[in-house]
Amino acid sequence: MPARPPADSSPLGQALAGGQRLREPAVPQVPGTVPVLTRANRQWPAEPDPQAARVVAALRRELPSGSVRADLQELARYASDAAGLRPGAPPAAVVLPETTAEVQAAMRIASALRVPVVVRGAGSGLSGAVIAPPGGIVLSTERLTRLIEIRPEDELAVVEAGVITGDLDRAAAAHGLRYAPDPASADFSTIGGNVAMNAGGLRCCKYGVTRESVLALDVVLADGTLMTVGHRTIKGVTGLDLVGLFVGSEGTLGVVVTVTVRLRPLPVATETMVAFADSLGDVGAAVQAITRSRVQPSAVELLDESSLRSIDENRGTDLAARGRAMLLLQTDGHGATAEMDELESVVAAAGVSVQRLVGEEADRMVELRRSGRGSKKDTWRIGEDVAVPRSRLVEMIAAMEGIGARYGVEVGCVAHAGDGNLHIGLSAAMRPGEAEPPAAVHAAADAVVRAALDLGGTITGEHGVGALKRPWLERELGTRQLQLQRSVKAAFDPLGILAPDSFLATV
């Protein structure tokens, strides 16, 4: 690996010089999610097959004690991400490396034995991209928690893949900086997971998704080779953009072990406003008016009536009494107040009531948007993450309401409306004896995704493709592009051991 420039000489920089280890992720239940096709009641065989035993033995010969887990209960903990999909048989082992060298050793063993590997961060993903390979290896990056350096003069940080997103943001704040991507899972998702899925968040309409904040990566390839891609400079156009290729690759090309991220200045001011309306259509029209205003808000978040009711039930608030839909708006920077003044006029002119929030009240509303919803008992729920051009947002809202009525399912929506990214929940009451959501819920989910594509949108805005979105992948990309993407994977992973059942699987 190329030598790193010296770390900064500030007090925090000196504390980090030896590589400060931050906390390991602990993932809570993701609010509002229910496994889509749960396999939780499927019994795994009590005894591992002989091949699994050989894999475990090889790993334990090369890796430190405690870094290899093969107990069935431990394997079950790492079998899936938050989507809840489990394999029909257990993996051979979970590997928990603490260093890049240990990641390399694990991959060399996997390559030699032709054993499939799935890379896992905090397991907070929602697309089924982290499903343990039967008889294979789950390689968890949760112990790679060093914050290697922060360089304020270059506005960058170098962190290991297991660093929790919010911890990086808080460490950067000590230098008057921040990590701009702001996923709702920031307090438990990891940087490596964000890179794998190209995660989005509340501030993406101004600062972009993860891709826009990644400068360089250290990646362990399928054969154990360590490779550095990218630059420590803001500009860098040498050769093909392999950083952009790895970001969003969902663990199919290599194991990201270290990430160099771009930091941004903490805004000198932030303004917050909420707007309530009598319908989703009215709020959608307000979003279009905001877009036409050419003001650049840092957040434009939409919550429908079912989401407001969920927050009320979970947190004791009364948001649903104020309207059937809500917008949460923020502006930041030196022009925050002037920009919000203009947005207040624009939104009010669209017939939506507005209220400016300050201090703890503003912070509280942002926190409610981030994590205030709860999940309903005895309810099946499928969540879809689609995005459409902002000019088609109102049409997408009308389409999803029509789909709910057509299939007799409840439709809920929380959206990063500023960039056209909608998180649509389709739910139905569980009936006695049901092992998975009824056909109507699946049909409604399919209709939602197809509606987004018909409006010029995409099947996923920030959650990735994984196993759950794979059925629609070819419809969006086309056959030739999908073939080319599989060819790219084969160039990096000729044995096909990395995430073999990923979105690039051929079956």
Automatic annotation (TrEMBL):
Q: Which UniProt keywords apply?
A: FAD, Flavoprotein, Oxidoreductase
A Pfam family recorded for this sequence: FAD_binding_4
Obligatory cofactor(s): FAD
InterPro entries in UniProt: FAD-bd_oxidored_4_C, FAD-bd_PCMH, FAD-bd_PCMH-like_sf, FAD-bd_PCMH_sub2, FAD-linked_Oxase-like_C, FAD-linked_OxidoTrans_Type4, Oxid_FAD_bind_N, Vanillyl_alc_oxidase_C-sub2
Where does the record place the region Disordered? 1-33
| Top-rank taxon, per record | Bacteria
Residue stretches making up the FAD-binding PCMH-type domain? 87-266
PANTHER family attached to this UniProt entry: GLYCOLATE OXIDASE SUBUNIT GLCD
What this protein is called in its record is: FAD-linked oxidase C-terminal domain-containing protein
Q: Which organism is it from?
A: Arthrobacter ginkgonis
